[in-house]
Every structure is written in C-alpha cells, then in structure tokens.
Amino acid sequence: MYALLLAIIYVAFISLGLPDSLVGAGWPVMHRDLDVPVAYAGIITMIIAGGTIVSSLLSERVTRRFGAGLVTGISVGMTAAALIGFSVSGSFWMLCLWAIPYGLGAGAVDAALNNYVALHYAARHMNWLHSFWGVGASISPFIMSYAITSGLGWSGAYRTIGLVQAVLTFLLLLSLPLWGKVDGRRAQTDHDAHPDTDSDTDPAGGHVPLRTALRIPGVMLILVAFFAYCALESTSILWASTYLVTDRGVEPATAAAFASLYLLGITAGRFMAGFFADHLGDRVLIRGGFLMVAAGIAMILLPLPTDVLALVGLVIAGLGSAPIYPAIIHSTPVNFGRRNSQAIIGIQMAAAYTGSTLAPPLFGFISAWAGLWIFPLFLAVLVALGFVMSERLNRLAPS
Asked: Number of folded domains in the chain?
C-alpha cells in the first residue's frame, strides 16, 4: 500500500515538473505569434507566481479539510485545464487568464504533496522525488522543441502536457482510498508508539492560523533560509550563462552547456543524496549543501587566467544545491511538530516562490548599475544568509 501510493507520487512529481519550463522554452515563438514584446513573459510568470504564493498560504486550511489526496488531484486537474487553455489561447490576455488557475493549482499541490511525503516517507524519497521533478522539468523543453519543429506549434506542446496532467488527475482521483489507508495506518502506528502523546501533535488536528505559525520559534529563520536558497537557485539558472559570456569571455555555446549542467547537477545531486540521506540526516545535508555551494562560488570568484575553475565551480554549486530544498522540507515536521507542518510548509512554499520570483529581476537591476561581475558576490550573500539562518534554527530545534 505504501509502495503503490509512493509510485503514484513519483509519477506526480515527474508530471509536476513538466509544465515548469514550458513558458521559457516556447516564448521565443509564442511572443511572435501573439504579437507582444519579449518582456511580456515576465507578466505571465508573475501571475503564475502570485497564484502559487496565494494557494501555498491557503494550503493548510484546504488540505486539513479535504485531505492531501483530494487536494493533489483537484490541483493537478486545475493545472491540466490551464495548460489546455494555454493551447487554445490566441491572444496574450487569454494566457494571463489561464495563468491564474495554473498558479493556484501548482502552489496547492506543491505544499500538499511535500508535506505528505515529509510526514509519511523517509528522507531518501524526498530527495528522489525532487530529482524526478527535475526530470520532468528537463523533458518539457524537448517536448516544446519537437512540437515546434514537427509543425504542431507551441500550442501542441501545451496540449500534450495538459493531456498528461489530465490522465494523472484521473489516476490521483482513483487512488484516493490509498491516501486514507496510509493516513489511518500512520495514525495508528504513531498512537501505538506514543499512546500518551497530546492530540496537538496529530497532523489532522485543528487549523493552525498563519499568525500562529509565524510565531513558532524558528519559523522566521527557516523562511529566510528557504527564501535565500530559492533566490540563489533561480538567479543562477537565469544569469549564469550571461555572466560567463559577458564578464568571463566564455564562448556562448560553452557557457550555455555549463549553465545547463548547474540544473542537471541539482537533479543528479538529489538522486545521489537519496542514497545516504537517511544516514546523514537533514541537518547535515543542509549544512553540507550550503558549504558546497560556497566552495563552488569561491571557485567562480577566483581571478585566474583560465575559466576552467569557474566552469567547474558552477557544476559544484549545482551539486551542492541539490539536497537543500528537499532536506528543509523533510525536516519541517521534526523541527516544528507534525501538527504544524502543513501550515509551515505552505508558508515555506510561499517564501520559495517569492525568492524565485524577486531575486532574478533584482539581480538584473543591480547588475545594470554595478555590472555583471557582481554575480558571484550576489550568490555569496544569499549562501551566507541561508547558511546562517539554518544554523541558528539548529540551535533552537530539537536534536
């Protein structure tokens, strides 16, 4: 039963990654077909990000009322409808309209699934699941490329992935009895192990208001750490190639290849981390991840006549980034209690989307004033912030 549901969740994570690269991969063609400026892609992504932040903050109340299984199924259904809506949109305003359910669905399912896995499965699965998300995110640009070159157009890619999401929605709805059985067995196991435990530790307990969650000791620390990490990741993905070409004089093709290796390093690193995550524990993974990213950034910063060390440093930074996100999520029930985990993971998702959305344009603004040479320093500040906040939390949280 655990294994069957876990297999469904793995498929869900692959499917969830599929839409995340579509706008970026298809926009060079989409903006011409829709007759809008290239910069309008930012409007679409901002609407999606706004929806994810709102639904992440509301996820605790919704998930407690309807259950993680139903919330996941309905949320994936919303993203499926939005993607199919994208495929039939003939104007920019229609894309903006469909971006609303896209963002709302993505945020809700992200918070619900991550909390469910954190509560019910080992740390290795959290790492592997996020690695599978990276597989989905890596596949979608190829789907877009095939759709464009085969004559289906960018709408064909959205339609294809929308139909995949629709099939997953059907599968998730069929699996609803499994979610209830796993919840029931987990609750019985916890009761047998801790018969005198207060009911407040039950994850199915009462609603935890946002204000209450934010007042829990250490929550603000982990939110800042999560914001910093996601800001670091999104800034690296967007700006690394431009920095290498403009400031270091690297050939564009080489810079693009190594920038993609940063993302592939995250995916591969999460897969590898899964093999020793249970043995090392979340704290060691977070600490080691930040330190490894710092080492990679130091290699990028070194003013050497060769760029080889900077390119290798970018790959090392990707590998170091790999376990941080899954480990922060998986450690939430331990750090703040099972009853509070859904509320706090929802807020963490909101902090993550905020960092991912705001940091890249913020760096663009700063670099326009100071120059792209500041790229590794910008990343270094984010690494230091994330590391310091996570270490301060370790001193507060239970061992």
From this structure: 2
